[in-house]
């Protein structure tokens, strides 16, 4: 069974409530019909009720039996405004500001997850990554013991000799523009944990750089060296090593030459990029030039699962990310 089918089967085994704040949008409506009819999750659409119903008819999506939450009329809105005010008053949010903010479907849906009225949230067909992350960071915040929210892509490669039978995790490709050594270490540990929990494989984490085992000296390399040390100290039970160049990390013969004593070189299945420029460019190169499927970005480190979509996503992408979010909710 392929990875996505596995996620769908897992999601079906313990139904979770997943909220879609872009409830009036064509792909979301079509995805909601599939998620509901295939019983992948209990889907909740947030938005203007009339608009959702009109658009569902217009786009031929059958949303019968699917819950709609309209922030303008929902009985939850008042409580959410109070909750948001309490959470953000120290940051200058007044009561009347909070009442306005929760009318925004992105904030309303985030409050649903915060209040356990939904187990997870997926958006991004219309909104940017920042539009999803900001309410998440402000309201849901990080899980206990986690300092940094980050993200990973599940890369499904054509060449099955790489990674774990062609599956690899790339991080962070979507959230932290320029992590310091502490943050990079936290990203490495979180991604190793995601590999274990979600992908069910033993992580071999390569901390990527333009240097392998001291071959180059530069402050950018020093950051990766420090992050590697910190990550190893945080989780000595995980196989995390660096600094490694990409070829040393994934090609056995090169790994043997450049970092012979490394337990990860040549067999990495988790790649941790030094910053967002490298990570974002890196996953897109592999997707476009090597024809890999890139699933994500999947967020990690939030207290509850919320996930992003690309604005170019398909209906199928939404269904898939909802299934993964539901499985993350099961594992939470
Ligand atoms: N982990 C934990 N907390 C964080 C993080 C993080 N990574 N980043 C910010 N925070 C906290 C802040 O401390 C702040 O907390 P507070 O308000 O309680 O004090 C809160 O989250 C909000 O922070 P802001 O300063 O308002 O948000 P910021 O301007 O830092 O934006 C964001 C955060 C949205 C994640 C920003 O870093 C960003 O835009 N990242 C890049 C997203 C992007 O464009 N990705 C590329 C495209 S995606 C793709 O191609 C697939």
From TrEMBL:
EC number(s) stated in the UniProt entry for this protein: 2.3.1.8
Pfam families: PTA_PTB (PF01515)
The UniProt record lists the keyword Glycoprotein: no
Gene Ontology MF, one: phosphate acetyltransferase activity
Enzyme class: transferase
Catalytic activity: acetyl-CoA + phosphate = acetyl phosphate + CoA
InterPro entries in UniProt: P_Ac_Bu_trans (IPR012147), P_AcTrfase (IPR004614), P_AcTrfase_dom1 (IPR042113), P_AcTrfase_dom2 (IPR042112), Phos_Acetyltrans/Butyryltrans (IPR050500), PTA_PTB (IPR002505)
Domain Phosphate acetyl/butaryl transferase: 3-326
Record flagged with keyword Nucleus: no
Keyword field: Acyltransferase, Transferase
Pathway: Metabolic intermediate biosynthesis; acetyl-CoA biosynthesis; acetyl-CoA from acetate: step 2/2
Domain of life assignment: Bacteria
NCBIfam families, A to Z: PRK05632.1, PRK09653.1, pta
Family: Belongs to the phosphate acetyltransferase and butyryltransferase family.
Protein name as annotated: Phosphate acetyltransferase
């Amino acid at each position: 069974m392929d990875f996505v089918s596995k996620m769908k089967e897992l999601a079906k085994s313990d139904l979770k409530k997943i909220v879609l704040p872009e409830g009036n949008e064509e792909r979301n409506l079509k995805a909601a019909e599939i998620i509901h009819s295939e019983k992948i999750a209990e889907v909740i659409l947030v938005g203007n009720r009339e608009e959702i119903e009109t658009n569902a008819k217009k786009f031929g999506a059958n949303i019968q039996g699917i819950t709609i939450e309209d922030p303008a009329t929902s009985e939850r809105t008042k409580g959410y405004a109070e909750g948001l005010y309490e959470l953000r008053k120290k940051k200058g949010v007044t009561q009347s500001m909070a009442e306005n903010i929760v009318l925004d479907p992105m904030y309303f849906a985030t409050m649903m997850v915060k209040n356990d009225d939904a187990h997870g949230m997926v958006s991004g067909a219309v909104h940017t990554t920042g539009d999803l992350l900001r309410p998440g960071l402000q309201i849901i915040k990080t899980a206990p013991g986690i300092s940094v929210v980050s993200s990973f892509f599940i890369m499904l490669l054509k060449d099955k000799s790489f990674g774990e039978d062609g599956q690899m995790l790339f991080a962070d490709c979507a959230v932290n523009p320029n992590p310091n050594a502490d943050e990079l270490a936290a990203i490495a540990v979180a991604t190793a944990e995601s590999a274990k929990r979600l992908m069910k494989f033993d992580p071999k984490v390569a901390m990527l750089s333009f240097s392998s085992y001291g071959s180059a000296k530069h402050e950018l390399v020093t950051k990766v060296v420090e992050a590697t040390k910190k990550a190893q100290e945080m989780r000595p039970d995980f196989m995390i090593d660096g600094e490694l160049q990409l070829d040393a990390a994934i090609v056995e013969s090169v790994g043997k030459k450049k970092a012979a004593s490394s337990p990860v070189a040549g067999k990495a299945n988790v790649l941790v990029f030094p910053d967002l420029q490298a990570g974002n460019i890196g996953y897109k190169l592999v997707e476009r030039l090597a024809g890999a499927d890139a699933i994500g970005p999947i967020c990690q480190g939030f207290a509850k699962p919320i996930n992003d979509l690309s604005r170019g996503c398909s209906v199928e992408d939404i269904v898939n990310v909802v299934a993964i979010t539901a499985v993350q909710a099961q594992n939470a």
